[in-house]
Amino acid sequence: MGKGRIEAFSDGVIAIIITIMVLELKTPHGDGLQALVPLIPTLLSYVLSFVYVGIYWNNHHHMFQAVKHVRGGVLWANLHLLFWLSLMPFATSWMDENNFAMTPVMVYGFILLMCGIAFYILSLMLIRVHGRDSDFAQTLGSDRKATLSVCLYILSIILAAINPFISLGIYFIVACIWLVPDRRFERMMQ
Questions:
Q1: pTM greater than 0.70 (yes/no)
Q2: Top-tier CATH class for 4-189
Q3: Where are the domains of the chain?
Q4: Whole-angstrom Cα distance, residue 161 to residue 70?
């Protein structure tokens, strides 16, 4: 089956996720810049989550440029990824509402970890559809950034028990690692 519907559905779900996150931002009481100061943690957690959702959308888009067709397993793997991404607004809000306490920061990291694992599973399902010797599989190759990210997420979940702000720093570092889009598929398409 074609890939158009999975791309359109994914784009729609991700747009809704971002919309839900922005709706969590409350209008400050007051008209001066001082009224924004108490919202700085909320804004920072929103920006971090927005960047993460954007990273997944960007990499999903790049990867699907190389996809020729999909099967049922790919549809389920994609839904698995979208499920974990859909929890980002909840985790972002919970973390902010509780001043970046240990448990919400751990849960945020767990959701990031599961998003990474879900994206990896989606990649494996696409390799299965296209074949291990396909251009798609060769382009995907080994993904050191993904492996590093998963390791850092696990480390950050553990470190949240010591200091949640160390974990937030690690989440920020991982986001910075992924800010540059994955160009492997763009090169393949040329």
A1: yes
A2: mainly alpha
A3: 4-189
A4: 41
